[in-house]
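Hello again,

I reread your note about wanting to compare the complex against the isolated chains. To keep things tidy I'm splitting this into two emails, and this first one only covers the full assembly. Below are the input lines as submitted, including protein chains and any nucleic acid or small-molecule components. They are followed by the predicted structure of everything together. The single-chain runs will come separately.
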Amino acid sequence: MEYAISVKNLTKKFGNFTAVDNLSFNIPKGKIFGFLGPNGSGKSTTIRMICGVITPTSGSGKVLGYDLIKEAEKIKQNIGYMSQKFSLYEDLTVEENLDFYGSIYQIHKRDLELRKKELIEMAGLKGKENSLAGTLSGGWKQRLALGCALIHRPKLLVLDEPTAGVDPVSRREFWHLVSRLVKEGITALVTTHYMDEASICDIIGFIYNSKLITIDTPENLYKTHGTENLEDIFIKYVKELSNKDVVSSFKEIKASRNGDEKNEF
Amino acid sequence: MNFKRMLTITKKEFIHLKRDKASLAIAFIMPIMMLILFGFAVTSDVKNVKLVVFDGDKTKESRALIEKFANSNYFQVSDIVNNYDKVEEYIDKGDAKVGLTIPDGFARDVRRKEAPKVQILVDGSDPAIARTAAAYSMIIANNFSLTISGIKSSQPFKLGLIDARARVLYNPMLESAKFNVPGIIGLILQNITVILTAFAMVREKERGTIEQLIMTPVTSLELILGKLIPYVLIGFVDFLFVLALGYLIFDVVVRGSLILLIFFGLVFLISALAMGMLISTIAKTQLQAMQAAFAILLPSILLSGFIFPRESMPKIIYYIGNLFPITYFLEILRGIILKGIGIDLLYKNMLSLFTLTFIIVLITMHKFKKTLD
Ligand SMILES: Nc1ncnc2c1ncn2[C@@H]1O[C@H](COP(=O)(O)OP(=O)(O)OP(=O)(O)O)[C@@H](O)[C@H]1O
Ligand SMILES: [Mg+2]
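Full-complex prediction:
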């Protein structure tokens, strides 16, 4: 089987600190891979290595058939990346942002015009071509950022917390778009802290303290843990691994605050 | 290194510039402001300085000398007193800044073609005024002895004005604007490019757009060069623009080779761009970049010899001044613009400028490589 991402013993150290510790996994093409883990567990660092931006301290890997270390340039040319910051140029218009990334990826002019039209349509940005990106609301910005990430028809889409700070409706619309792209053959690597989003993924990897704890399909995870609630599974892992009662559930938190008082409403 | 990607960055940078009022103002209004500000306001020229006169000779010649002072724009005769003590009293009180005492026998000395003795008393509490007022007095008196007697008397007054002598040589009317303009050109070139480039990269960092850029095939070299091109152009346009304004407003003509001047301008531009880039790689926010820029620009203005003559600085301060490329560039600018000299006399400054530029570029490249991984 041909994998979109395949890494072996991937490790990154910053000085004495190990940010990513001996990661190995394979992601088949055309799947959505959800990468979960608490803050600071090493998700973004792993992504940077996969995208060929930082060199692993040790380990190896292939992305879209290209070597992580030797063919970083080819990898970059074939992935689309988007982060929670929606790194758009706010003082450039919608069209100028698309133009900029289009010509960074060296798309031919005629091709670019067509692609821009498609993406503006897809992102629902019609009529906003000449608005400054900074004046768009969160959901629009997010979709424009996705458009910029897709301008060069990447085969792998890397989304690092793409829906942070976006309202529930925009979140669903966004995932709708991603699902459609995957159906068309793209592979997606997504990190998220929303468990409902994680449940959409085909494969879920859980990273804790720089180490990959588990990687499996959501269905298998449900079976193993006897619950269909990914959030509970997530918390369970953290509890087990950190050896302490992390936090009580939201219900318990509320109950403890209200105490014996009767709820007035 | 892909040329098209580099130019894409350049094009984007121009759009940023076009939309950013602050950067535009720094690029095109600041040069004019600085030129006018430093040219007119920060002037050590003296105009209408109050002069008190004691004429102990009371002859046609002594009156002619007083007339000379009065008719110059530099002095304004506030009073004529009848003894020497009064002159001192006026200066002590601050009613006059300069006292002119013409002793008995002045006309006789002039006629005998002996160096006439005149005393000039200057209020030293404001050294800038004192120095220039003394120098002006010297020139006026010099001119006077020339017209009266035809003697090319060179030193009728012993004032010990080493700096003034040098200035008189190349800048006969002692207009400090003329002396300042070459320096201002250097400052403008430095400040604008350092500030603008410092901001250029930090902006991407602060807004997080660099995160996106590093995921694209753009290389750091393409990014740096692409970003620098607009500022090279702006720096160069400003350089020529200020040179032209200096001519139109202050009548400053380039006496030496314009080609040579432009060549050194480009070398200096590289060092300024590298300094800006260095700040950009170290600073994390625009505020930090601004502070760092001022931490470099302020001492460079004070220590380069732009305002204070470097010769009279304490040794340690003098050596610190040696660390700024602008110190050498100022010498080169003044040399080429005011004195019209060429490489044969400028080679020491040229070597220093090259060496410093080279070191700064090396440090910047080293730092930039480190921050990427
Ligand atoms: N360039 C760096 N130098 C030093 N430490 C770093 C560097 N980049 C990341 N780290 C550290 O590595 C650890 C993992 O960071 P990373 O950004 O990969 O976490 P993350 O899982 O993406 O977290 P989050 O959910 O908050 O985005 C953190 O402790 C971070 O401080
Ligand atoms: Mg992260």
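For quick reference: The first strand of chain B starts at residue 49 and ends at 55.

B.
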